[in-house]
């Protein structure tokens, strides 16, 4: 049974909890005890008798040998194997041992166990933590296996520690001297970043720093294995977790990571809880499961908008090209539902109202008419916001709605008729760069911004439109700035890599970032200001940036850059998606993601040096980007060969 419901969350967002068990050759009983009686969703169970060593079978005649696996495949239906059992590869295996017999036994056993798991249609197998300091041979062997897998996922078991915080965990000290993230990182890089390889974290009683933990949110962590030793005891004698552990587990739930309870019960519960109401014996780990379920159920329900956007999380989308292409009705519809952008105190209506008041003093309000042009009017929401601002401020307005999409112009005409705006609003069906206006505007209102600010060619369009702005006229927005920050984003990287071509690595994507670790605060990249009457102005840009990772973070892998924008609409009225200043409750823009062809490992103390170019040709605009330090990457998107925005 899943862990109940998170607040008012839908069933589809259920989370599951498994239990780590010892080897049993009676799998039906194992399932009956842990699932039917115990209430767990699945078992994490060894597939092979732990005393098995291939070398001990030598000379016994291979034709009579039967692998000491956990019973015949027939003891469970395929669907039960698949949904109730995660295979645990023998923990004794050591593929990097100096002892050749052990090494060879390990390799043989690993391959046999994975073959058996595949035969059973299991969804996943847990690989034991690498032993010793090297994991090259283990990774080589796993990589070979990965090439042949289609559905089975492999979870590498890694303790959640970082060297400087690993104090009393004897196990960890024996296994690794380094940050366990580095162990995971080496292993997955040796395995060519295969998407069928993920990580299962052993959660200990001591946790690394927040920044160090944050890195895991950008990794594909499939399971968090919590040992019973990590639980504290509450006033009633029941298991509970520290506040930091609770926060971590909530973070895992939010990232679809499953929880597995492991170990012997270490809490002496009050006598009455040993059996249930029917008098049957309770599962010894039931109180741990109940506590994990309680943690999930007490999570705040997702806000409405987050729920709607669940399906977009970490889903790569090609950015819109509203200049070159004509947007569809559905796209306009989505924009128009974002009332924050147009109406609320912070946004367009407020900006226009302020500009109108600055332009026309109160005493002239009944005489002067302000000429306002909405350039790129779409289906009219900025026309409406501007007219509302005029009404709010008692200013007289004459509006031109300029739009190059003939389909949106149809809607504009209907809107004007429906609202009775014929005497106030003139519709111009034309590209703003080529329109010969009969008069000049006091205020130019536009929303031509992409997730990265200038990436939908607002600069080029507004440069064209400013011909018909009075010399002292106002542009709303008056400026916009793009921002980037380095991120670990394993899922996004693997999704880009799945296309197996260069072009996808040289394309920025619009994406609702979720499973990403933001490694350093974002920094500004390009700024554009409007109007810009300087004769020397051009829209090419180059920016070099240096990011320093927090000193307690440990090393990280940069898969690319999250991009955002912030825009000054007018004076103190801004609108944007840069995380620290983002306009609340606005959903028109997801961030953008610039991938790196080869992820770059960065360490605190050695800055990440990044270069971004905005390049302009006669028919297109494009970005190029690269990293020069700590290790250089190839230049991305040279000459806009893979991605460009058409003029
Ligand atoms: C991002 S949409 C915004 C539409 C509308 N203002 C809104 O907020 O819903 C940009 C609009 O500008 C139009 N557009 C883009 N470039 C243009 C140009 N050069 N001349 C006229 N319209 C343009 C597009 O067709 C599209 O309707």
From TrEMBL:
It is found in: Cytoplasm. GO terms for molecular function: protein-arginine N-methyltransferase activity. The record marks 335 as: Critical for specifying symmetric addition of methyl groups. InterPro entries: Arg_MeTrfase, Arg_MeTrfase_PRMT5, PRMT5, PRMT5_C, PRMT5_TIM, SAM-dependent_MTases_sf. The active site is at 447 (proton donor/acceptor), 456 (proton donor/acceptor). S-adenosyl-L-methionine binds at residues 332, 341-342, 403, 431-432. Residues 39-298 form the PRMT5 TIM barrel domain. Pfam families: PRMT5, PRMT5_C, PRMT5_TIM. Residues 305-476 form the PRMT5 arginine-N-methyltransferase domain. Keywords: Cytoplasm, Methyltransferase, S-adenosyl-L-methionine, Transferase. Gene3D superfamilies: Divalent-metal-dependent TIM barrel enzymes, Hnrnp arginine n-methyltransferase1, Vaccinia Virus protein VP39. GO terms for biological process: methylation; regulation of DNA-templated transcription. Residues 479-645 form the PRMT5 oligomerisation domain. GO terms for cellular component: cytosol; nucleus. Belongs to the class I-like SAM-binding methyltransferase superfamily. PANTHER family: PROTEIN ARGININE N-METHYLTRANSFERASE 5. This is Protein arginine N-methyltransferase. It comes from Brassica oleracea var. oleracea.
């Amino acid at each position: 049974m899943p862990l109940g419901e998170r607040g008012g969350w839908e069933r589809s967002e259920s989370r599951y909890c498994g239990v780590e068990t010892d080897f049993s050759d009676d799998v039906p009983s194992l399932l009956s005890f842990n699932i039917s009686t115990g209430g767990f969703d699945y078992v994490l169970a060894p597939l092979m008798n732990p005393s098995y060593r291939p070398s001990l079978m030598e000379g016994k005649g291979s034709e009579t040998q039967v692998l000491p696996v956990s019973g015949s495949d027939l003891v469970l239906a395929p669907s039960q194997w698949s949904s109730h059992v995660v295979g645990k590869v023998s923990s004794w295996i050591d593929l990097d041992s100096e002892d050749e017999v052990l090494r060879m036994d390990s390799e043989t056993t690993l391959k046999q166990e994975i073959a058996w798991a595949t035969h059973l249609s299991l969804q996943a197998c847990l690989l034991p933590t690498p032993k010793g300091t090297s994991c090259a041979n283990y990774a080589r062997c796993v990589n070979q296996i990965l090439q042949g897998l289609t559905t089975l996922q492999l979870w590498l078991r890694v303790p959640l520690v970082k060297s400087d915080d690993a104090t009393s965990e004897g196990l960890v000290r024996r296994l690794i001297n380094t940050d366990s993230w580095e162990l995971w990182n080496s292993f997955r890089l040796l395995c060519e970043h295969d998407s069928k390889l993920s990580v299962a974290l052993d959660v200990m009683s001591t946790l690394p720093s927040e920044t160090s933990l944050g890195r895991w949110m950008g990794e594909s962590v499939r399971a968090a294995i919590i040992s019973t030793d990590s639980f504290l005891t509450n006033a009633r004698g029941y298991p509970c977790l520290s506040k930091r552990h609770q926060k971590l587990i909530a973070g895992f739930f939010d990232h679809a990571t499953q929880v597995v309870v492991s170990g012997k019960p270490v809490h002496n519960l009050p006598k009455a809880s040993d059996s249930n109401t029917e008098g049957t014996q309770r599962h010894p780990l039931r109180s741990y499961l109940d506590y994990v379920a309680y943690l999930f159920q007490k999570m705040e329900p997702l806000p409405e908008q987050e729920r709607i956007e669940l399906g977009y999380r970490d889903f790569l989308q090609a950015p819109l090209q509203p200049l070159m292409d004509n947007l569809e009705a559905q796209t306009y519809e989505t924009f128009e539902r974002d009332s924050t952008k147009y109406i609320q105190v912070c946004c367009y209506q407020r900006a226009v109202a302020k500009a109108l008041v600055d332009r026309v003093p109160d005493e002239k309000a009944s005489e002067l008419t302000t000429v306002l042009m909405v350039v790129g009017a779409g289906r009219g929401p900025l026309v409406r916001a501007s007219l509302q601002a005029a009404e709010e401020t008692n200013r007289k307005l004459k509006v031109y709605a300029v739009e190059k999409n003939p389909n949106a112009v149809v809607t504009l005409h209907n809107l004007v008729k429906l609202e009775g705006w014929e005497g106030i609003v003139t519709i111009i069906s034309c590209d703003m760069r080529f329109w010969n206006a009969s008069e000049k505007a006091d205020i130019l209102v536009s929303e031509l911004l992409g997730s990265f600010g200038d990436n939908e060619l607002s600069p080029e369009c507004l440069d064209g439109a400013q011909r018909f702005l009075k010399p002292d006229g106002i542009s709303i927005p008056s400026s916009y700035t793009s921002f980037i920050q380095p991120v670990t984003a394993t899922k996004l990287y693997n999704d880009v890599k799945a296309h197996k071509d260069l072009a996808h690595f040289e394309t920025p994507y619009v994406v609702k970032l979720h499973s990403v670790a933001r490694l350093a605060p974002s920094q500004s990249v390009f700024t554009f200001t409007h109007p810009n009457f300087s004769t020397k102005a051009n829209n090419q840009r180059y920016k070099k940036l240096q990011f320093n990772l927090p000193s307690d973070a440990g090393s990280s892998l940069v898969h690319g850059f999250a991009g955002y924008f912030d825009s000054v609409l007018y004076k103190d009225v801004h609108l944007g998606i840069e995380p620290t200043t983002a306009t609340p409750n606005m959903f028109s823009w997801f961030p953008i993601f610039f991938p790196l062809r080869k992820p770059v490992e960065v360490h605190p103390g050695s800055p990440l040096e990044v270069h971004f170019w905005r390049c302009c040709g006669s028919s297109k605009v494009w970005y190029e980007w690269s990293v020069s330090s700590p290790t250089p990457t190839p230049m991305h998107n040279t000459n806009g060969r893979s991605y460009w925005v058409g003029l």
